[in-house]
From TrEMBL:
It comes from Vasconcelosia minhoensis LEGE 07310. This is Argininosuccinate synthase. Its EC number is 6.3.4.5. It is found in: Cytoplasm. Pfam families: Arginosuc_syn_C, Arginosuc_synth.
Length: 403
């Protein structure tokens, strides 16, 4: 008895997802495989990928251009949350997974499939992100993960595919595992598996080596409305165009590289290299604008929320009740986060150089030490007395008890 009759497979055109097509049919007894490739602004030509899936035995080969939705519905909320996993990784790859899961579930419903599938292994985070997101959207649909079960290395996987007439022109591929979308690139494996090895320049594609960056700094201005980036250097841009242009500007100055040892959800540590120029600059600029427009208590409380929010995304819980509750909190905080942030790009650094907002809570008249100072210094003594009263009472009690 087959596990499923009709399956929608998340398809990238790579070796693993390509071999999944015959493997699902032969080993899982699937009668019909429909592939789905998501255009997330990765820059690949997807028509050859669509045709490749058909040549490899797919009955339908779907391509969905969801780049705008990816930025508006996934990246922008993460920017509003200042989401940085372990305070470093801006979740450029992780953010794509719930969207792909949503597409799989929708396609399965449209085409009457009784299962969806992906090519994730049993050691990574993506399997969790896909499986849990799919379960949240449709708890009754089956999820098949051939690569989690077949136990084949890359050469064995290629050999298996060749048994079914599949062709893999490049036998000796790059040692790196690379994932890319409009938000950036993630690179792992190969020499990077030794955390002592410095990443070679060949692993980078959208950020310039520091030695080759301009010798003069470049200033840019990013406009925000209610926490969402809307303009670059005074020009209103669509979300996709803004990310695209900012990637180019920041990447040209070597901004956006991350080299980190990351704690995976499955319990192991992995060495990860990321390039995410625009996303890192936007999070830094957004956080800076919040410092100007949010009250201190909200700013401080939100920092803890941001850590939890980042972990929820990383751990595959985008469609969870807690994530929805935190979304409501974050959106409430963003009502006044509008203004402009000036950033200096130079030799791998994005330095915050200025910020302004009509909603600014900063008052120069209160902050200045000049003759224009309007702060009532005489009120400080009473404030300090009341503020320190609990400490004073505690000190008196403990001193008398120790005599």
């Amino acid at each position: 008895m087959s596990r499923a009759n009709k399956v929608v497979l998340a398809y990238s055109g790579g070796v693993d997802t390509t071999v999944c097509i015959p493997y699902l049919k032969k080993e899982f007894g699937v009668k019909e495989v429909i592939t789905l490739a998501a255009d997330l602004g990765q820059g690949d030509e997807l028509e050859p990928i669509r045709k490749k899936a058909l040549d490899c035995g797919a009955s339908e080969s779907l391509v969905s251009d969801v780049t705008t939705a990816f930025i508006e519905d996934y990246a922008f909320p993460a920017i509003q949350a200042n989401a940085l996993y372990e305070n470093r990784y801006p979740l450029s790859t992780a953010l794509a997974r719930p969207l792909i899961a949503k597409l799989l579930v929708e396609a399965a419903e449209t085409y009457g499939a009784d299962a969806v599938a992906h090519g994730c292994t049993g050691k990574g985070n993506d399997q969790v992100r896909f499986d849990v997101a799919i379960a949240a959207l449709n708890p009754n649909i089956k999820v098949l993960a051939p690569a989690r079960e077949w136990g084949m290395g890359r050469e064995e996987t290629i050999a298996y595919g060749e048994q079914f007439g599949l062709s893999f022109p490049v036998k000796k591929s790059s040692p790196y595992s690379i994932d890319r979308n409009l938000l950036g690139r993630s690179i792992e494996a190969g020499p990077l598996e030794n955390p002592w090895n410095e990443p070679l320049e060949e692993v980078f594609a959208i950020t310039t080596a520091i030695a080759d960056t301009p010798d003069q700094p470049e200033y840019i201005e990013i406009g925000f409305e209610q926490g969402k980036p809307v303009s670059l250097n005074g020009h209103a841009l669509s979300p996709v165009e803004l990310i695209t242009q900012l990637n180019q500007l920041a990447g040209r100055h070597g901004v956006g590289r991350i080299d980190m040892i990351e704690n995976r959800l499955v319990g192991i540590k992995s060495r990860e290299i990321y390039e995410a120029p625009a996303l890192l600059v936007l999070i830094a600029a957004h956080r800076d604008l919040e410092s100007l427009t949010l009250t201190g208590d909200v700013t401080h409380y939100k920092r803890g929320i941001e850590q939890t929010y980042s972990e929820l995304i990383y751990n595959g819980l985008w469609f969870s009740p807690l994530k929805a509750a935190l979304d409501a909190f974050i959106q409430q905080t963003q009502a006044q986060v509008s203004g402009t942030v000036r950033v200096k790009l130079f030799k791998g650094n994005a330095t915050l150089a200025g910020r302004k907002s009509t909603n600014a809570l900063y008052s120069e008249a209160l902050a200045t030490y000049s003759a224009d100072d309007q702060f009532d210094h005489r009120a400080a003594e009473g404030f300090i007395y009341v503020w320190g009263l609990p400490t004073r009472v505690w000190a008196e009690k403990t001193r008398s008890a120790n005599r």
